[in-house]
Specification:
Blueprint: H1 7-16, E1 20-22, E2 34-36, H2 38-56, E3 61-63, H3 72-78, H4 80-83, E4 85-90, E5 97-99, H5 118-123, E6 131-134, E7 138-140, E8 150-152, H6 158-162, H7 165-172, E9 178-187, E10 202-212, H8 217-234, E11 242-246, E12 256-264, E13 267-278, H9 280-289, E14 295-297, E15 302-304, E16 307-314, H10 315-326, E17 327-335, E18 341-349, E19 360-364, H11 371-382, E20 388-390, H12 396-406, E21 410-414, H13 416-421, E22 423-428, E23 434-438, H14 442-450
Parallel strand pairs: 3-9, 19-20, 19-21
Antiparallel strand pairs: 1-2, 4-5, 4-6, 7-8, 9-10, 10-16, 11-12, 12-13, 13-16, 14-15, 17-18, 21-22, 22-23
Helix pairs in contact: 2-10, 3-9
Amino acid sequence: MTKPDYTDKIISLAKRRGFVFQSSEIYGGLNGCYDYGPLGVELLNNVKNIWWKDMTYREDIEGIDTSILMHPRVWEASGHVENFTDPMVDCKECKARFRADILDELECGNKAYKGRKAIKCQQEGKFTEARNFNLMFKSFIGPVEDSSAVVYLRPETAQGIYVNFQNVRETSRQKIPFGIAQSGKAFRNEINTKNFLYRTREFEQMEMQYFINPPEDNKWFEYWKEERINWFLKYGLKKEKIRIYTHEKLAHYAKAAIDIEYEFPFGWGEIEGIHNRTDFDLKRHSEYSGKKIEYFDDLTNERYIPYVIETSAGASRSFLAFLTNAYEEEEVTRENLDGSKAMEKRTVLHFHPSLAPIKAAVFPLVNRDGMPEIAHIIANDLRKNFRVFYDDSGAVGRRYRRQDECGTPFCVTVDSDTLKDGTVTIRDRDSLEQIRINKDRISDYLITKINI
């Protein structure tokens, strides 16, 4: 049975409900750049905050936040100036540009050939010879634009960790093995952007570099591979939608590398990489800076340059994976006012409660009899701990459906019984079950369910 492709519907919902907007949309948009709306920024922040908490609220990992602009020698030492390139070709006919290594994935730029793959144009000799294109964004520091003022927007966050290895180790008094984590913006001047948020020119990374004794590299590589797979499963990604891709052709810095891939509607795509980077980075920065970077084990009297196991996740790609994974169209039973039942379709986002942008919505059943006043008091009280949405517009069923599309796990309704005994109805997004509890117990109930 063919699986439905919800790509267009997800993109439409993302805009309609305020998850993602095209950057500079009123000017026609900027290709490969997106803005996160009110719900989108909450979801993205939740992804990053949960990652940060799970990664750094442990004894052996420290956090850091390094500058986007770094000394240009950093990128020479890391190999980015020399090796961070993609092969690029131009079409002689339509003048479009393509990455030469993924022509079978890209569509021809000529609108007259809609749906035609770019690989066909190459086979017909319409492309120029491939040439290397460096993906780093170049800029200048200061008023003079010459070679002495060149800087780059960082294409990854890892190098800021490596150059601060000694600073973090000494100030935190950590001993090997230990890690340094950071999340933040990175920039890549992609030749072709595609698949919504999957490949963009500005994005966010969540990276952790774990420094180890070289003989223990295999043990820690396997450890972090399992840890990171389990993290995605813990927050709701379906097990059958995740797989491991093992790299046979390795980057210049790697001894071993795997990708954690998610099955998006457009196909399998990487959401996190786990790499054994050996001592390449620390050794290169020691060489280029002239500063000794090493570790002395005072228990064994051993001195060495640590190996690094890297976990590198895309916050933006994780956002897209969680959004895609949560999306569902289903039929549910609706109970009418006369007691009869009918089937209706609903679109719902089944976010893990910890990730959901809005944790609870509060409704007065009707806008009279003191119900709005009570509902406002409940909403304001819940806002001390949660992101809450108040809605008094339209039938309750429609309000439920709107919150289903936002991924809100719980809806609280104030009704006539609330006026009598102080109880409210709490409706569960996924099971559709409704329970009644006292309004003074709502916050404790949500804390238990959301597990914050």
